[in-house]
Amino acid sequence: MKRYNNFLIVGIDHGYGNIKTANTVTPTGITKLDAAPTFTKNTLYYDGSYYLIGEGHKEYLPDKWQDNDNYLFTLMGIARELNREGIASADVHLAVGLPLTWVNRQREDFRKYMLQRESVDFKYEDKLYSVRIVGCSVFPQGYAAVVPYLKDMTGLNMLADIGNGTVNIMKINNRKPITTQSYTEKMGVNQCVKAASNAMMNKLGVTVDETIIQSMIRYGNADIDSEYAEILRQAISDYADGIFSLLRKYEYDPKLMRLYITGGGGKLIENFGTYEHDRVTIIGDICASAKGYEEFAIAQLRKEGK
Prior knowledge:
The chain is of the alpha+beta class. The protein contains seven helices and 15 strands. Strands 1, 2, 3, 4, 5, 6, 7, 8, 9 and 10 form a ten-stranded mixed sheet that branches.
């Protein structure tokens, strides 16, 4: 979150696996509750209903405004950022993103979705927030994450933003994005989780909890039997190989360009990928896109003289 003139800029990265602000990460699971909960942690109260947020993850939807979930996640993200500053009321300008190839087609719809109410009162973790949404800017997902690295992007570069639902690919030439060479594929980390789960079922007839697969992805290991672990490692390694095959489909050549990888899949590639380490930069900050949205929003508002 950044202060700008008389309002706050709050960047929110609406992933399918996690909702990220500049300083917080929350899984996208959401459940509407029938009554007030006994425990209020991770609970949002809005428009007469209670929602538990943070257990599991959201299903893939091609349009991020098809249901009200992302709006509820936005309120939660605002609350978590305001709470860090010790405030409960503010004017807020939202800075959000869409997959690279969706931005031009979906920007205005997503913007209207975010601006559906100018003034909104809600509770998060039993604390009342009163917020006025004064504006919303929508930027390319993934590209925002490399803002601190742009100064180093001389020559030809490729960006791969590996999220839970999609992989976004863009070429960047001498710090400038090549918009005609931007691509979105539904090959996010959730596809890897499904493949690993299926491998366990097919080879051993065992159902494995998703948290075990996620642990393997993030840390390269999990506290399970060695035979089970080897099956998961092989499935995750196959997915990592598939990512590089996808990049080559879009003309990735490590001898001609540098590769920048961002998103939740970065740790997967770091732990299981085969690549030239001196030619690949993995951006480990999962909140990098949300931070980049805030920087882009400030630049845009200054350009507009606001």
